[in-house]
Specification:
It contains one helix and ten strands, in the order αββββββββββ. The chain has 148 residues and is mainly beta.
């Protein structure tokens, strides 16, 4: 009888440990006061800064767009861009960005926004940095689209 209790305890300990390992993701405040449809947006914490630009502007729905990121005083082993719906789940949309070897801290990639039937759709576009020490950093930006 003690064996099932031991196994349940062991499984619980493994699951708890796995959940705690995810807590090494640090998140900067959501940038809400910048319009990615019209300009490059920046997020800054201390001396570290991330700039995000999406072309074309305004950002189209259901059509490819180009992503440019500039990181200053931030080191990233890998950099991904994650797009998620705030007011409606829109599925998994994450792309890896490519480092430009000629421009330190400069990354590029491509993605697209899914078409949504909501008249107004709120998105969170997050830069996800994997750092050399294994920690992760999330830098979120808000984007609002209108279905016309």
């Amino acid at each position: 009888m003690k064996r099932p209790v031991f196994l349940v305890g062991l499984v619980s300990l493994v699951l708890l440990s796995a959940c705690q390992n995810k807590s090494d993701t640090q998140s900067w405040p959501l940038v809400e006061d910048c319009d990615l449809h019209q300009q490059t947006c920046q997020s800054q914490q201390g001396e570290s800064r991330a700039s995000l630009s999406i072309q074309p502007q305004p950002i189209p729905l259901a059509k490819p767009f180009q992503i440019e990121v500039q990181l200053d005083n931030l080191e990233a082993q890998t950099l991904e861009l994650d797009i998620s719906g705030i007011n409606m789940y829109m599925g998994y949309n994450r792309v890896s960005l490519t480092a430009n070897p000629d421009q330190p801290g400069h990354y590029t990639g491509a993605s697209m926004l899914a078409f949504c039937t909501n008249e107004v759709m709120e998105w969170q576009i997050s830069l996800l940095l994997q750092q050399a020490d294994g920690s992760r950093l999330q830098i979120p930006f808000k984007l609002v689209t209108r279905n016309r």
